[in-house]
Amino acid sequence: MFGQPTSPRFRAVLAGTLSAGLIFSVAACGGSDDSDSDTTTDASASAIDCSPYTKFGDIKGKTISIYTGIVTPEDTPHINSYKPFESCTGATVKYEGDKSFETQILVRAKAGNPPDLAIVPQPGLVKQLVATGKAVVAPDEVSANVDKFWGKDWKAYATVDGKFYGAPLGASVKSLVWYSPTDFKDAGYTVPTTLDELKALSDKIAATGAKPWCAGISSGDATGWPITDWMEDFMLRLYGPEEYDKWVNHTIAFNSAEPTAALDAVGAYLKNDKYVNGGLGDVKSIATTTFQDAGLPITEGTCFMHRQASFYAANFDKKTKVAEDGDVFAFYLPGKDASSKPVLGGGEFVVAFADRPEVKAFQTYLSSDTWANTKAKLSSGWVTANKGLDPNNLTNPIDKLAATILLDPATQFRFDGSDQMPAAVGSDAFWKQATNWITGQDTKTTVDNIEKAWPK
Amino acid sequence: MFNAASTTPGKLLQMLAALLLFAAIMGVILFIAGRLGRGKRGDKWVGYLYLAPAVLLLLVGLVYPGLRTIYESFFDAAGKGFIGFDNYKTIFSDKDELTVLRNTVFWVVLTPFVATAVGLLYAILVDRSPFESVAKALIFLPMSISFVAASVIWKFMYEYRPDQGNVKQIGLINQIIVWLGGKPVQLLIESPLNTFLLIVVMIWIQAGFAMTILSAAIKAIPDDIIEAARLDGVNAWSMFRNITLPSVRPTVVVVLTTIGIGTLKVFDIVRTMTGGQFKTNVVANEFYSQTFRADNQGLGAALAVLLFILVIPIVAYNIRQVRQSSEA
User: Fold this and answer.
1) Which residues of B touch A28 (CB under 8 A)?
2) Is A228 on the interface with B (CB under 8 A)?
3) At what angle do helices A140-149 and A357-366 cross, to 10 degrees?
4) CATH number for the domain formed by residue range(s) B86-327
5) Which residues neighbour B223 within 8 Å (Cβ) at sequence distance 6 or greater?
6) Using CA atoms, how far apart are residues A453 and A421, in angstroms rounded to an integer?
7) Domain-by-domain residue ranges, chain B?
8) A100 touches chain B (CB under 8 A)
9) Are the CB atoms for A195 and A262 separated by under 8 Å?
10) CB-CB: which of A31, A280, A439 is closest to B13?
11) Strands A159-160, A163-164: parallel, antiparallel or unpaired by DSSP?
12) Which of B30, B165, B290 sits opposite A4 (nearest CB)?
């Protein structure tokens, strides 16, 4: 009727074949698991002192999985920087990079399938991960390393309810203004050292008929984020780190006087038709220009300044020389006066979901100055706030500038505020309203709407 | 065993293993069916057994998540506190959410009708013409492109460059505006124009689908009816009005509703072209951003439920029409 086998003998044979197939397939699945146990030592990765890691016991042959949003090509220096650890302990690090890390890590943690370690780029996400109950408190050795090599503020970002969950890894400096040293020299402009000087310089350039600034905030569904950085920078400069923290932690309302004034101060630049948008259009064109393209007019001579983080260096053409005496470089977005040095930045944290000895040992390695210097030698476009870092190990000039800013004792570092706000604000309302603001919405409505979106 | 392999041979091996596993499961079902398929009611049991995997997968993959989503839509952002119908109230009172609803209405009203009209007109025009197959292929091509690719193409069409010194336009529409002596317009920012420009993309994709199905239906009209009408001396309009349209009516309805369902779920175009900014957001995109970006599971679930409720009547009507036309 349905064509099923009717002869008992045939059925027995079929069943036998199929169960054999099942067993075989299970075995095949098991076999395809550890395909990347590549432990060849890189020549550039020098041997390291193994004693801090051997005290966790014999971890030879053990595997540590690490899950991150860092993908090609930035993953190579990461993987290579693990090799000294692998060769001295005999453990293997399994690296997994994923572009959709930020949503997937939550899914994996909630589903009970987290990696051993995750490189988390936002303090807000660290909190969310701790809330899943799957994250493990950092071992004492890591905590001691962080006390030694990082400022207190950095430790606080990964501390939830008094418990410390993960050492910082990399860092980025956001308070930078990109410019063309050659164009500045030709026109006789000097790098400003106070906010007033920055304004005066902008006016001076605008008076010549040129547009001093270029900006762009388009970034897929994250459109609007560069404005949040602008606003954070101005909040930090106009009212200082303490007020900034209050604003980020919602101790003061988003629509109170200081944040409103900070956004207006940004508006004096970005919503000023005399200042923007060099080579790209009018104020509204900021909304449709991708952040990757926004600073490129500097190299074409149609724009003089572009405020963006240190990682922007990667967006320039390979032929463009990024150096203090080159085609483009960046200067520190000045403080209110020359004496204050507030710096806005970002960074990553290593959060653990397992406390096996090999995981602890690797966490300790990642939080050490040994790793920071190994990584610095291997990569370009990467810095860390690890005080054990020797800036001379950094290869490119913009990394050196960023490291100098980060390691300067006078620097008052503050983490990107929108990364710390609840997701409903930090990765939704703030972006959306900032975009509406640049396309014409007034400041008052903008801050009111963001305040309204803050989860009660 | 369920970890994804990372090397090519590993992946192939895993694929082979998965195929074998599938074959093994099928074999087990067939084996049991063979045992059961005896006796008086054997056929019935075999039927149920064959249905079982599909029903089981539907339960796990569709019914359970569906019910779960409805349940979650009554909870707050964290999915912990029960808040009754508040999420639904937000959808129908919040200014941004109302814009989302307005845009969805534009999409659902415009896309199916315009796409079907264009498809029908085109099908009639090229019917029995010497270059029919080429003409059909041309309009059918967009169907084979993914929504994201189509959006990227159209993003270039709408691209804006400022009217500044030696800056050149790279978008076709703005270049035409400049040739005609106008100033370039930021097409994707001007609301509500931008929503209509996004709808154009959907129509561009769907018109080919409408044309193909309707063309087949037109060809199925019996020649004797057409001949009889010709003998009666009808003109082109009344041929269309009294012969063609009534004959293909069931097909038109199926095409309309199919495109309507697809349009309600539109997500890729909006996300790729504007990311829902500049007042172009629609329900499906808002549902995604509330759930995965704003971390507001409750509101996201409520939007998903709303989408589900909106789709049901169209799906029901669609199925009824499909049944009727296949019976006829």
Assistant:
1) 13-14, 16-17, 20
2) no
3) 0
4) 1.10.3720.10
5) none
6) 11
7) 8-72, 86-327
8) no
9) no
10) A31
11) antiparallel
12) B30
DSSP B289: I
Q: Do A25 and B17 touch (CB under 8 A)?
A: yes
What residues of chain A, 114 to 143, have a C-beta less than 8 Å from chain B?
128
DSSP B40: T
Please, what is the end-to-end C-alpha distance for chain A in angstroms?
64
The residue type at A242: E
Mutating which of B13, B20, B28 best tests the A interface, going by the most A Cβ atoms within 10 A? B20
Question: Which residues 6+ apart lie within 8 Å of B34 measured at CB?
Answer: A4, A5, A6, A11
In degrees and rounded to multiples of 5, residue A120 shows phi and psi of: -100, 120
Residue B277, chain A, CB below 8 Å: the answer is yes
What value does the mean pLDDT take over residues A249-265?
95
Nearest CA to A360 among A156, A31, A85, A173? A85
Q: In 3D, which of A284, A266, A313, A269 has the Cα closest to residue A218?
A: A284
Of B20, B28, B293, the CB nearest to A427: B293
Size (chain A), residues? 456
According to CATH, the topology of domain A51-173+345-414 is D-Maltodextrin-Binding Protein; domain 2 (3.40.190)
Question: Which residues in chain A touch residue B294, judged by CB atoms under 8 angstroms apart?
Answer: 423-424, 427-429
Of A411, A7, A450, residue with least CA distance to B34: A7
Which of left, alpha, beta for A324 (phi over 0: left; psi -120 to 50: alpha)? alpha
Q: Report the residue count for chain B.
A: 328
With CB atoms and an 8 Å threshold, state whether A103 touches B292: yes
Given a contact cutoff of 8 angstroms between Cβ atoms, the answer to whether A386 and A369 are in contact is: yes
CB atoms inside a 10 Å sphere around CB B133: 10
Contact of A284 with chain B, judged by CB distance below 8 Å, is answered with: yes
Q: CA B76 → CA A298, A395, B95, B288, B296, distances in Å?
A: 47, 49, 19, 16, 7
Cα(A431)–Cα(A220) distance, integer angstroms: 11
- List, for residues A128-178, the tens digit of each pLDDT value: 899 888 999 999 999 999 999 998 889 999 999 999 999 999 999 999 999
Nearest Cα to A148, choosing from A376, A431, A367? A367
Residues 6+ apart with CB under 8 A from A282: A273, A276, B162
Minimum-distance CB partner of B1 among A26, A423, A429: A26
- Encode chain B (328 residues) as per-residue pLDDT tens digits: 456 666 778 889 989 999 999 999 889 888 888 887 777 777 888 888 888 889 999 999 999 999 999 999 999 887 888 999 999 999 999 988 999 999 999 999 999 999 999 999 999 999 888 888 999 999 999 988 999 999 999 999 998 888 776 678 889 999 999 999 888 888 998 888 999 999 999 999 999 999 999 999 999 999 899 899 989 988 888 988 988 999 898 899 999 999 999 999 899 999 889 888 899 999 999 998 888 888 788 999 999 999 999 999 998 998 888 887 776 5
Residue ranges, CATH 3.40.190.10, chain A: 51-173+345-414, 176-344+417-453
DSSP annotation of A285: H
Distance CA B269, CA B199 (A): 9
> Which chain B residue has the Cα nearest residue A281?
B162
Enter the ipTM: 0.76
- Other C-beta atoms within 10 Å of A112: how many? 9
Report the alpha-carbon distance of residue A313 to residue A298 in Å, rounded: 12
- Put simply, the chain A residues between 162 and 201 with a CB less than 8 A from any chain B CB are none
Architecture of domain A176-344+417-453: 3-Layer(aba) Sandwich (3.40)
Q: Which of A72, A82, A112 is nearest to A350 (CA)?
A: A82
